Every structure is written in C-alpha cells, then in structure tokens.
Amino acid sequence: MKYENVKSGILILLVALSVLLYYLLWTDQGGEFDAMDTSGSTMKQEALGDKKEVSEVIKPDEIYQHIDGQHYGTISKEEVDHILNRLKEFDYGNFRNISSTIPSIATFLEKQNNGLEIRFPGQVPFRIYKDILRIDQDNSFDFDTILFSYKDGNVYFLSKETGKVYETSINTTYIEQLNKLKENVYAEKTVYSTYFSYKPNDQYLIYLPNGKQEVNKYKYFTRQIESIRLSRALFEEPSIAQKEILTNWEEYTDDSGLLRIYKDTHIVSFFKPAGISNEMTQNHIINNSIELINERGGWINDYLYVGRDEDRKVTFRLYNTNGMPVFNLNTELSDIRLYWEDNKAKRLLTSNLIIINTTTPFDFSKETVSSGEDVLKYLKSNKKLKMEKLQKIVLGYDMQVDSQSIVSLQPTWFYQYDHKWYSLYSEGTGGSLDGLE
Predict the structure, then answer these.
(1) pLDDT tens for each residue of 38-50
(2) Domains of the chain and any CATH numbers
C-alpha cells in the first residue's frame, strides 16, 4: 500500500514538473507565436498588442442629442457603445440619394431640434459600416455623420466633406425604442453637457460646450518596445534582418524592408511592409490597413480610425480613456499612419511606446480650460484666419514625452483649418490665451 502511495506521489510530481516546464518554455518566448508561411517553413512574428475588429477601430467619437432646440453632447465611450448597440437592433429601409435637395448640410443640421446626431472623426465608407449596423443593402458612398429623427424614424447618412446625403428610415416599430436613447440626457449622473452651434460655412456645423470645462491632465509611465521585438513583429522573416546601430536610430534591413527606430522621438518607420497587390477600393484600403496592423504586432494602445487622404494615407489616432483625442503635432507620435501605393502598403509610421495602465495614471489633476465661447471669440479675433475655412474645433490632449519616456497629456483646444490640425493655445496657466503663431 505504501509502495502504491509513493508511486502515485511521484506521478503527480512528474505531471506538475511537466506543466511548470511548459509554462517556463512559453514565457521565455516573450509572447511569440509560430506562423507557417506558404512554403511550409516556420517563421516567428511577435505579438506586441491586441488584435481588433473593424467595429472597434471605426467608431464615432461624438454624440449629440437635439431636444426642444437645445444641444446636448458627449464623448463618453460607454455612451457611444450603448447607442451603437441599440442601433444594431433596428431594421433599415431602402436608401435614397437626396443630396440635390440639401444645398447646405450645415443648415440642415442646424435646424434639427428632435434628433440624435452621431459624428465620426473621419470619412467612413458605407460598405464597411453597413456590416457593423447589420444593414443588408449595398451602396457606394462615404459619410462622417449619421442623423436619426426621433419624430418619424428617418435616418440620414451625411458627408460634410463631399456634400452627399443619403436617406433611409427605420421600421416604425423601432421609433419608441429609438426615443428611449434620450433618457440618458436627463439621468441624475448624466454624461451629457450643453452645447451651442457655430456655422463657419455651408458644409460644417461646429458644436462647442457652454461654459468653462474641468478636465483632468495626466502623466503616464510608458514601456519602450525593444527594437528586436519590433523586427520580429514587422518582418516576414525576422531571422534574416540585419541590425545596425547609428547615432540617432537603430535600423533593421532585409531584401525588401527597412525598419528604423528613432531614439529621441520614439517614432518607428517601417518601409515596404507586405501589402495586397490586387486593385483595391477605398474601403478595401481601410480594411486592409486594420488587418495589416493586426498581423504586424497588433494595437499597443487605444486608436480610432480618423481618416484617409488623396495620397492614400490612412490614419489612426490615439484616444484617451475619457474619449478625448490625443495629438502630437510636432512628430505625430500619437498617430499610426499607413501609406499605400500601387495597391500595396509601402510605409508604416507608429510609436514604440506602450502607455502602462491607461486607466490609472501615476499623476493627474483637474484643470479648468476655456469655454467654447472664448475659443470661438479668440479664433475670430485672429486676422490671419479665414473663418470659412474652419472645419472642426475639439478639446483634446497635447501629448509630450520627456527624457524618462513619461507621457504627459495636457488638455488643449485644437482646430482643423483647411484640412490641417493646429493647436489653439496652451492651457497650462489658468487657461490663458498664448496666441497663434
């Protein structure tokens, strides 16, 4: 009997040692995973962050409720997700192009007093978003705003950039459910604030908050991704990439790619990542950009799709946990940029900094920033600006990185003017206006 007990004990010990050995071998790989290429040879590419669905990256960043002539707005991520989940439950009717009947999108939006307005940070191809909203119909147009009428259930997909407007409607049985989306405006701990509108031109209507805002400023610890891990994530055959250390950057090269990591700015530049050579539409380029980032290391911070341009550059921007966009206008450190040429991704620009524990910064404090009225007054006073070229004004964060790689997020007003972003002024000294350059 004792012999059997000893034998059983030895067996249990061996199993435990096997599990421990497996664990140590796995963790020693630094989170790598094996992938098989088409030739059957094994290549190792590093997983740096999470893979994300299209619906997690292409999302609205502003919600406005127009009720009885008042505007209520929020950037709460939780409220955005709540509303999107409800909209997926509706049945949508046929789409009609009514652009010719709406000469001014800004005026059309300005007249809304009983509706739900959902704004996206960039132009979104309908063919991508129809699957997210579970719409069966297929149409080829872009939009940046969706407007729901609480009165009759009409739905408008609008593009302020192109002037296009497409109309549909939800089944009347869903109108009561749609109107329930107003309820959070009147909740005791509402995430909505009151806004006023400003129309600089016939295309754009800008909403700005009433009164001064109290916003947190943050400091975060970061972790730099080692250059060897970046090479494993980005090269198809990282084992053949040659490393060279220069004064201002580290460099990896193989027969087709060049990876450069800049030491001072934390910018990562990867030239000629693998792309898809078939003819691609704009929605294919956006989809493939998301897929490429998923395959080449993943998403190391929280980014949203914010647009593409005529040069086929697709941009994703960092957003803070409170829903505010993060800018670094000097080096664009807060963006991921993918450049496409001849239907192939030719260049990837990103950062090698991972913000540690975004929900718990090591330092934060409240700061009062200027009101929307003061911001608008300040812009109008600048004689260098032509207000009709103004497109957006947003409260965001200016991202700075010190020599210890600590990230500071300072609340700052930004404005988009003639398709380019500018910082309005520094908010660091009691909200004083420092002037435009």
Answers:
(1) 333 344 567 888 9
(2) 61-210 (no CATH), 220-354 (3.30.310.160), 358-423 (no CATH)
